[in-house]
Design a protein that fits this description.
The chain is an alpha+beta fold. The chain contains 3 helices and 11 strands, in the order αββββββββααβββ. The strands form 2 sheets. Strands 8-7-6-5-4-3-11-10-9 form a 9-stranded antiparallel sheet.
Length: 166
């Protein structure tokens, strides 16, 4: 279960990184929120205390670093996991299991076994090649909806790949 949860979270992070084709989406009440969808793949190398992790899924992301939601889908289109966060808390739901965290950073670190800078992910999705916390982003294919981010230091090494749908 922990590995599945970690894989889902890894997918979430990847989704943040790759979704560079943001399109405002109108929600009830007239507010525009950024929204991305596509395919996300995350890989975290093994360490002494953490097994290797790999995850790939289609996703839909809405929001911003402070508040949003992320859904991962199975190949048949059903929801595999849903992550919702606000400044007060973050939660992940897989099936009937719901886990709560103090914030999205804590959720991601717990699931992946390594921190990922959420604010940098959203910057990458917006086309900003900001490097942060050891993460380096390759946006050379950004015009084609592709983003790759890698962290080599500190351990564990990690990679996030995103392919955005137009």
């Amino acid at each position: 279960m922990r590995q599945r949860f970690a894989s889902l979270l890894l997918g979430l992070l990847t989704l943040f990184l790759v979704f560079g084709c943001a399109a405002p989406r109108t929600i009830p009440g007239g507010a525009d929120i950024p929204s991305w969808n596509g395919r996300l793949a995350v890989r975290v190398q093994a360490t002494e205390s953490l097994a290797s992790q790999a995850f790939s899924s289609t996703f839909e992301l809405q929001g911003q670093p402070q508040q949003g939601q992320l859904h991962f889908y199975t190949p048949l289109g059903s929801t595999a996991a849903a992550i919702v966060w606000s400044p007060e808390r973050a939660q992940i739901q897989t099936g009937s299991d719901i886990q709560y965290f103090s914030d999205i950073d804590a959720l991601i670190a717990r699931v992946l076994g390594t921190p990922v800078p959420v604010s940098a992910l959203f910057a990458w999705l917006a086309g900003d090649p900001t490097s942060m916390d050891g993460w380096q982003v390759d946006q050379s294919q950004f015009p084609h909806g592709k983003i790759t981010a890698r962290r080599t230091n500190p351990a564990p090494q990690a990679e996030i790949r995103v392919i955005l749908e137009p």
